[in-house]
Write a structure and sequence with these properties.
With 124 residues, this protein is an all-beta fold. The chain is 0% helix and 46% strand. It has strands at 3-7, 11-13, 18-25, 34-39, 45-51, 58-60, 68-73, 78-83, 92-98, 118-123. The strands form two sheets. A six-stranded mixed β-sheet has the order 2-10-9-4-5-6, with no helix packed on it. The chain has a four-stranded antiparallel β-sheet with strand order 1-3-8-7, with no helix packed on it.
Length: 124
């Protein structure tokens, strides 16, 4: 069955950097758009970034544009999110998610399957 396993979350200082990883299994990873989403304390899930099947296209929420970078290694079935210039408001549980439809961009929906998450805490 489909599994998404995130890792890399940590406690980092303001202005710090971190790289999150997500390994996918149980599906043809290279055929799916992938997403990063996050849930900040007391807030709803919010979309962070998306990447196309061959990484030709990437999209970012305005809140992270210029600071976060999404990438993927299809040979390793792994999705990445490079976080830099971290702010206290970036503190959240970060999840990776897969598009339910292969080869097309459906646009983020909170019902998409996602992993168990990895916690990023930005402290002053």
């Amino acid at each position: 069955q489909v599994q998404l396993v995130e890792s890399g979350g940590d406690l980092v200082p303001i202005g710090g950097s971190l790289r999150l990883s997500c390994v996918g299994s149980g599906f043809n990873f290279s055929n799916y758009w992938m997403y990063w989403v996050r849930q900040r304390p007391g807030k709803e899930l919010e979309w962070v970034s998306a990447i196309s099947t061959r990484a030709v296209s990437t999209y970012y929420a305005n809140a992270v544009k210029g600071r976060f970078s999404i990438s993927r290694d299809n040979a390793k079935h792994t999705l990445y999110l490079q976080l830099s210039g971290l702010r206290s408001e970036d503190t959240a549980m970060y999840y990776c998610a897969k598009d339910p439809n292969d080869l097309i961009y459906s646009g983020w929906n909170s019902r998409f399957q996602r992993g168990q998450g990895t916690q990023v805490t930005v402290s002053s």
